[in-house]
């Protein structure tokens, strides 16, 4: 019997930077394993990824991306752009042909604010906002309604929290107690937790 898992993660790009948000519940079938998992993983001081799917798979991919980013910096003397890292991750996922059971949002501000989503086969879509996980339909409805290109980073953060919160109310696999929020701007990366 297949065990069901789920989550909700969102990413928003605005002029000032990007916002990533995710619930902090890890579930397996009808069991909540923890209410305190981090689903947004920093890769560099300017790029992070979110995970929906297998935690072990995304942790391995995060370690690989972190190593590639260090190697790139050592070789070229400058940080890898978010767009380049997204393309690298797309290639890694495509080469595996579905081996990694993940949906990922990658967001960062190296040269410019960038958000992209990736499916398990490496399909890559750059956009202004996106969501992944079992709560996607609920989160996307909120993002569609509230997103504007001229949002401030604070308003984008509020919108991201609202989207994950809405998913938590309707999707049984999305946590409804706490939301992890990461903002990335020219000044760097900040993480906070919002209790609902």
TrEMBL record:
Function according to Swiss-Prot or TrEMBL: Component of the proteasome core, a large protease complex with broad specificity involved in protein degradation.
Species, as recorded: Pyrococcus kukulkanii
Assembly, per entry: The 20S proteasome core is composed of 14 alpha and 14 beta subunits that assemble into four stacked heptameric rings, resulting in a barrel-shaped structure. The two inner rings, each composed of seven catalytic beta subunits, are sandwiched by two outer rings, each composed of seven alpha subunits. The catalytic chamber with the active sites is on the inside of the barrel. Has a gated structure, the ends of the cylinder being occluded by the N-termini of the alpha-subunits. Is capped at one or both ends by the proteasome regulatory ATPase, PAN.
PANTHER family, alphabetized: ATP-DEPENDENT PROTEASE SUBUNIT HSLV (PTHR32194:SF0), METALLOPROTEASE TLDD (PTHR32194)
Protein name in UniProt: Proteasome subunit beta
InterPro entries: Ntn_hydrolases_N (IPR029055), Pept_T1A_Psome_bsu_arc (IPR019983), Proteasome_bsu_CS (IPR016050), Proteasome_sua/b (IPR001353), Proteasome_suB-type (IPR023333)
Subcellular location: Cytoplasm
NCBIfam families: arc_protsome_B
Residue ranges of the propeptide: 1-6
Reaction it catalyzes: Cleavage of peptide bonds with very broad specificity
Any one annotated GO CC term: proteasome complex
Activation/inhibition comment: The formation of the proteasomal ATPase PAN-20S proteasome complex, via the docking of the C-termini of PAN into the intersubunit pockets in the alpha-rings, triggers opening of the gate for substrate entry. Interconversion between the open-gate and close-gate conformations leads to a dynamic regulation of the 20S proteasome proteolysis activity.
Cited SUPFAM superfamilies: N-terminal nucleophile aminohydrolases (Ntn hydrolases)
Family (UniProt): Belongs to the peptidase T1B family.
Enzyme Commission number, as recorded: 3.4.25.1
Active-site feature positions: 7 (nucleophile)
Keywords: Autocatalytic cleavage, Cytoplasm, Hydrolase, Protease, Proteasome, Threonine protease, Zymogen
Phylogenetic placement of the source organism: Archaea, Methanobacteriati, Methanobacteriota, Thermococci, Thermococcales
GO molecular function: hydrolase activity
Matching Pfam families: Proteasome
Coarse class of the protein's main subcellular location: cytoplasm
